[in-house]
Amino acid sequence: MDPSFFTVGMWSIGAGALGAAALALLLANTDMFLSKPQRASLEYLEEIDLKTLEKEPRTFKAKELWEKKGAVIMAVRRPGCFLCREEAADLSSLKPKLDELGVPLYAVVKEQVKTEVKDFQPYFKGEIFLDEKKKFYGPQRRKMMFMGFVRLGVWSNFFRARSGGFSGNLEGEGFILGGVFVVGSGKQGILLEHREKEFGDKVNLASVLEAAKKIKPQAASLASEEK
């Protein structure tokens, strides 16, 4: 056999493999294969069962969180994740302005592993509740698996959070994507729904504040309806 034929053959196989890898990398960095979020309705959110994190937990319907004053709610992907801690700190930076508006800030987690929630609290300046059935991550739960680690946007988010001084661990489930909601009082509805499309895809803080300013406390809403 002609040695040059073997060399050309091997080169062709190698070039084909490199081309396939480049194409896979390119596709992984588009939104083509990302699962599309299904928007939640107010009725869906209202009936979610949440638990307090006390020694004797109380179970209640999620609508209690926003019924009177509305609320900003973070559905945390994983409390030990340094990207989630970064977003929690960002949302907490809005706390003084939210307090002025009378709008509470809350978070929900999908599990309580070791001291993960306790370790998360220094980054988040609001109450935290347990969503055992992971309803805030639905109606259709979306996951990002190992494809996330070849996305350039994710690596950019990693560097951003690391350079900001955030650190974390690998405890707990971290593939089910989270989000942020701004919900009006009573039946005012969902004013903002941000669904994380990849690890570290943070909500726009200006959009959160803008949505929070639209919240009408229930007493004011009832008064306007009576007029």
What would your notes on this structure say?
The protein is an alpha/beta fold. Helix content is 37%, strand content 14%. It contains eight helices and seven strands. The chain is globular, with a radius of gyration of 22 Å. Belongs to the peroxiredoxin-like PRXL2 family. PRXL2A subfamily. Its main location: cytoplasm. It is found in: Cytoplasm. The chain crosses the membrane at residues 6-28.
Strand content: 5-15%
Structural class: alpha/beta
Strand order of the largest sheet: 5-4-3-6-7
The biggest sheet amounts to: 5 strands, mixed
Low-confidence stretches: 18-28, 221-227
Shape: globular
Computed Rg: 22 Å
Query: Helix count, per DSSP?
Result: 8
Distance between the termini: 94 Å
Helix residue percentage = 25-40%
Number of strands: 7
> In sequence order, what are the helices and strands, one letter per element?
HHEEEHHEHEHEEHH
Mean of residue pLDDT values: 86
